[in-house]
Amino acid sequence: MDTLQLFDAFVLGLIEGLTEFIPVSSTGHLILAGQLLGFHSTGNTFEVLIQLGAVLAVLSVYFGKLWHLLVTLPSDPKSRRFVTGILLAFLPAAVIGAIAHDFIKGVLFETPMVICVALLIGGFILLAIDRMPLNPRYRDIEEYPLSLCFKIGLIQCLAMIPGTSRSGATIAGALLLGTDKRSAAEFSFFLAMPTMAGAFAYDLYKNWSLLSVDDAATIGIGFVMAFLSALVVVRSLLGFVSKYGFAPFAWWRIAVGAIGIGVILAYR
């Protein structure tokens, strides 16, 4: 096993965990960082499979709430509606992701310019939304109407373009549909669980025969680092967003996107 490749997996796992739940596109950052490091994964599976580490971070932080939902699901209509809302929001990504999987992995993942442009455009959109005088109607994720959940799920599908950001799309969409910033970020956490777990399972199914022992080692290191770094983000993001909003993330996207485009054009 190449020590340098293990180090790259360590760095990329750290990046995944730090960026998965903030609206800057973890996949976009992973692909661009991988290009800089000269890191190549079999079938581009590394970037998808290590996301499960970040999902487990959410599960550990919200274990109490998830357990309460599980226990009360048979008897509490509020719990059933919330779980139904998450599943409805997940449904569009599950269908479109399965249909467009090969195009996304084979074409979009291999086009850095698309990622940089998406980062740039998404940054300006997020900055504009953050400055809008919005009047939130929904502040509790368990009170979100099912129709609202489904609409957020449709908007999440934009994140299949790497650089868009799954959390960025869901948060921005939720804000425009009448939620407050804190609950929008929290709903994005819960929606991440089935979405990323589904992507993990489907990608593993599609590429299982291509993976080797060396791939398992790099994925394992990236997985652990994604889990540890995502723990820090999940525990601190809601408080940060409540205080500072999403402008810092928007400016970061704009900076990374602009630098990336400049580098790509300079080396053409």
Automatic annotation (TrEMBL):
EC top class named in words: hydrolase
PANTHER family reported in the protein's UniProt record: UNDECAPRENYL-DIPHOSPHATASE
Catalyzed reactions per annotation: di-trans,octa-cis-undecaprenyl diphosphate + H2O = di-trans,octa-cis-undecaprenyl phosphate + phosphate + H(+)
Transmembrane segments: 48-70, 82-101, 107-129, 187-205, 217-238, 250-267
UniProt EC number: 3.6.1.27
A Pfam match: BacA
Protein's recorded name: Undecaprenyl-diphosphatase
Protein's organism: Aureimonas phyllosphaerae
Keywords: Antibiotic resistance, Cell membrane, Cell shape, Cell wall biogenesis/degradation, Hydrolase, Membrane, Peptidoglycan synthesis, Transmembrane, Transmembrane helix
InterPro entries found in the cross-reference section: UppP
Location in the cell: Cell membrane
Gene Ontology CC entries for this record: plasma membrane
UniProt similarity note: Belongs to the UppP family.
Main function: Catalyzes the dephosphorylation of undecaprenyl diphosphate (UPP). Confers resistance to bacitracin.
A molecular-function term among this protein's GO annotations: undecaprenyl-diphosphatase activity
Additional note from the record: Bacitracin is thought to be involved in the inhibition of peptidoglycan synthesis by sequestering undecaprenyl diphosphate, thereby reducing the pool of lipid carrier available.
Its membrane topology: Multi-pass membrane protein
GO BP annotations listed: cell wall organization; peptidoglycan biosynthetic process; regulation of cell shape; response to antibiotic
Keyword Magnesium: no
